[in-house]
Amino acid sequence: MKVATFSVGGERRVGVVDASAGTVTPFDLPSEETRDGVAALARRNGALPPLLSPYPLDRVALEAPIPRPLRNIFCVGKNYHEHAEEFSRSGFDSSAAAGAIPKHPIIFSKVPETVIAGGAPVVIDPEVSTAIDYEAELAVIIGKPGRSIRPEDAFDHVWGYTAVNDVTARDLQSRHSQWLVGKSQDTFCPMGPWAVTRDEIDIADTGIRCLINGEVRQSSNTRLLIFDIPTIIATISAGVTLRSGDVIATGTPAGVGIGFDPPRYLKPGDVMRVEIDGIGVLENPVREAVH
Ligand code: MG
Q1: What is the pLDDT along the chain (291 residues), one digit of tens a residue?
Q2: Distance CA 243, CA 42 (A)
Q3: Where are the domains of the chain?
């Protein structure tokens, strides 16, 4: 099932997408629940509310599946072999002392206010950063809460998946050692176009791509993850309770801008397109900040 968060007539709704029919059918949910987007369903542990009448998809405004996560988005760094190697070679890697391929998952976070919908501009500010990069990623949405989750139980805690673009200011990421500010600039987490429930895709074999202005820069598959989803969930939840609606971005494949020589960073007017098979297309333009 594909589930979108959208607004129509000034109200936020959560509904089932039928992409071939071009419709989205909202669930009968109160606004206190739709405020959290698809997290409202993730909390219900499989029990679905009744459906209302469908809308044509082109008559609604899609929002990010979880427009404002309840807390920071968990993220995994250097989780595809070729990307770990290109990032280490770049000289920007403040974690390089540990070697190109991490022995344990690298976990960092982005603040919730970074999240924007597909179609919304990513704003880059040359007074703050001159090295802004794209990162196509599969994101996991947690359903059943849990602490110290065993890898063999991890998928019981997964409600579904979506696509994110972990936009990154490389100069800030490098300068401050910790990655938070370089990853948490306003508008730096496009998410969407919608979420899919975990039964919808084979998450161990899913194609992922990123195109910049139509040129394929990243093209990979989730089977090439260094640390798989059960390992990531077991790692983060060891002593940290995961909650319904938590989002975990699983890392980006090779082909980011910093992997080129010279680097190919984002510039105003660029269009970024993240594609994940079985989920959909997340496209965002790049705009320069207005002071
Ligand atoms: Mg990333």
Answers
A1: 999 999 999 999 999 999 999 999 999 999 999 999 999 999 997 789 999 999 999 999 999 999 999 999 999 999 998 888 888 888 877 776 667 788 999 999 999 999 999 999 999 999 999 999 999 999 999 999 999 999 999 999 999 999 999 999 999 999 998 999 999 999 999 999 999 999 999 999 999 999 999 999 999 999 999 999 999 999 999 999 999 999 999 999 999 999 999 999 999 999 999 999 999 999 999 999 998
A2: 10
A3: 2-62, 73-288
Distance of CA 32 from the midpoint of ligand 1 (Å):
31
- Distance (Å) from CA 132 to ligand 1 centroid: 13
Residue in the block written with tokens 């989803």: 229
Give the predicted TM-score (pTM) of the model.
Answer: 0.97
CA of 181 to the centre of ligand 1 (A): 13
The rounded Å distance from CA 49 to ligand 1 centre is: 34
Rg (Cα) of the chain, in Å, rounded? 18
CA of 76 from ligand 1 middle (Å) equals 6
Quickly name the fold that domain 73-288 has: Fumarylacetoacetate hydrolase; domain 2 (3.90.850)
**Contacts of range 29-37, beta carbons closer than 8 Å, 24 or more positions apart:** 34/5, 36/66, 36/68, 36/70, 36/245, 37/5, 37/12, 37/63, 37/64, 37/65, 37/66, 37/67
